[in-house]
Design brief:
Shape: elongated
CATH topology of the largest domain: Thrombin, subunit H
Oligomer: single chain
């Protein structure tokens, strides 16, 4: 098929020259070479309700927004109408004098009791947090809790670790599981020339030395030989050049990066150490809405290392979209998570990790909407990173590309494609390079050719190609519809492409 096209199509019209997703050709963002975006540390700009991946970053780094939270109109409080006062009945004694009514002491007594209970509860919380801050493993204590899970005290005044069903209390999680939680400090190599050329970050110096660029959380997941592996989030470590892992007891270890995966937002570090407390992991497919959970991490950085918060699972398999073009199903929780919690543990009440805290919706209009990567996804990704350095079994086309909307003449091109039967092809991918090992290298496909459809479906968004590849395996064949501009004419043709295995970070 063909159509006249007057404006031409040249590389100079590309508004963004960076390649996108060299392994897949499905990323609608602008990050090249599999690098992760720089995630922010503050609240949503303009307070407009955005979702963030959270690593605690130093000053001078920008926020990266996730999806826009739905706006809701303000609710008007219902006006209360005063009830008419009741007329008091007056009684008289034998001499005809009015009898004064007795004061109602019951209400005063209730208020005092409630106040005492509230104060006692606050004191109990403060004592519990302070008492468990050391993170020592005291083991299970005598069961003195009620069947509802309310924390009681034994004869020695200690908070019980388990309830009547044998599950941990929140205090029990803190006492018995916190040693498997760590803090992560991320360093970047500053350029000695950055001050001359103006591309250094706000925390760079002129010496070219390592500088702290961020802090996050991690989980001790595996000991193998002389090494211990630390599970965290990809966005915590992806931009780092070196790392330090801090244990709950304050010991520090230099760490090396094993690998990371942007699709699942999972990363792995390795330290030379043995005998540390390795976390236990739950089957996240067994997670249920309403199940109590405990989050442990470093909100605000290592200054508040291993802070403990609790809440409930608000939803399972909640789709969360990232700004780098990937969707995944997460566990939603109302347990408080904040910048620096990324990569930290979300425990169930059996002391098992059911999720890896990753992101939240940050807005004054929304509270308690955090998201965790399910443990099954996290462990499968981490094991593959440890074994082969990438996520095995993931399919790719084998190209680098730029999204059509990065071109100044995109509107004219899309109009021409619509006349050819490809309406709203906003997910069109302009090929920058075909990898040597791609099946397309053996086909008549060139630079600046455009992929406008896959398996007969127009790419109205990048999600269509993303989901197609996610549902495919290396060795599968897909049909690509290619559009080409030659001599001011657009022609389209189909090619079969055998997918290869992706070995990158995307």
């Amino acid at each position: 098929m063909s159509n006249e096209y007057e404006n031409g199509f040249t590389p100079e019209e590309n508004k963004n020259a960076e390649n996108q997703n060299p392994n897949y050709g499905v990323n609608s963002g602008t990050n090249a070479g599999g690098t992760a975006p720089n995630y922010g540390t503050g609240t949503a700009p303009n307070d407009n309700g955005t979702t963030y991946h959270y690593a605690y970053s130093s000053a001078g780094q920008n926020n990266t927004n996730y999806y826009k939270a739905p706006e809701q109109p303000p609710t008007q409080p219902e006006k209360k109408h005063k009830k008419p006062k009741k007329q008091k009945a007056v009684e008289y004694d034998a001499n005809g004098n009015p009898i004064k009514p007795k004061k109602n002491k019951t209400a005063i007594a209730i208020i005092v009791i409630i106040a005492v209970c509230v104060i006692a509860a606050v004191v109990g919380i403060i004592v519990s947090v302070a008492g468990n801050g050391s993170g020592t493993d005291s083991g299970a204590q005598e069961d003195t809790t009620s069947s509802s899970g309310v924390q009681l005290q034994d004869s020695n005044g200690n908070v019980a670790s388990t309830d009547n069903d044998g599950n941990y209390t929140v205090a029990g999680i803190a006492q018995n599981c916190i040693d498997s939680c760590v803090g992560i400090t991320v360093y970047t190599q500053s350029s000695p020339y950055s001050y001359f050329y103006g591309y250094g970050s706000g925390n760079s110096d002129s010496s070219g030395e390592q500088t702290v660029s961020g802090e996050g959380s991690g989980i001790i997941m595996l000991e193998d030989g002389n090494y211990t592996y630390i599970l965290t989030c990809a966005h915590v470590i992806s931009d780092g050049s070196s790392f330090t892992v801090t244990l709950n007891n304050g010991d520090e270890y230099d760490a090396t990066m094993v690998g990371y995966d942007n699709q699942t937002d999972i990363g792995v570090l390795r330290i030379t150490a043995t005998g540390l407390k390795v976390a236990q992991f739950a089957d996240s497919d067994s997670a249920v809405v309403g199940e109590q959970v405990v989050a442990i991490g470093c909100p605000g950085g290592l200054e508040f290392m291993n802070s403990v918060t609790s809440g409930y699972i608000s939803a399972v398999a909640r789709p969360v979209s990232s700004s780098i073009g990937y969707d995944q199903e997460c566990i939603q929780t109302d347990a408080a998570i904040n910048p620096g919690n990324s990569g930290g543990a979300l425990f169930n009440m059996q002391g098992q990790i059911i999720g890896v805290n990753s992101s939240k919706i940050a807005s004054t209009e929304y509270e308690g909407m955090g998201f965790a990567v399910p443990s099954n996804t996290a462990i499968a990704t981490a094991n593959s990173l440890i074994k082969v350095g990438y996520v095995a079994g993931r399919a790719q086309i084998g190209i680098t590309y730029t999204s059509i909307d990065n071109y100044s003449n995109a509107s004219a091109i899309l109009s021409a494609l619509e006349e050819l039967g490809y309406a709203d092809a906003n997910g069109t991918m302009v090929i920058n390079e075909v990898n040597a090992d791609s099946d397309l290298a053996n086909k008549d496909v060139h630079e600046y050719d455009m992929i406008v459809a896959v398996n007969g479906t127009t790419l109205t968004s990048s999600d269509i190609m993303t989901s197609t590849l996610a549902d495919s395996n290396p060795g599968d064949t897909i049909k690509l519809t290619i559009a080409r501009i030659e001599n001011n004419r657009i022609t389209t043709f189909d090619v079969d492409c055998v997918l290869s295995e992706s070995k990158g970070n995307n």
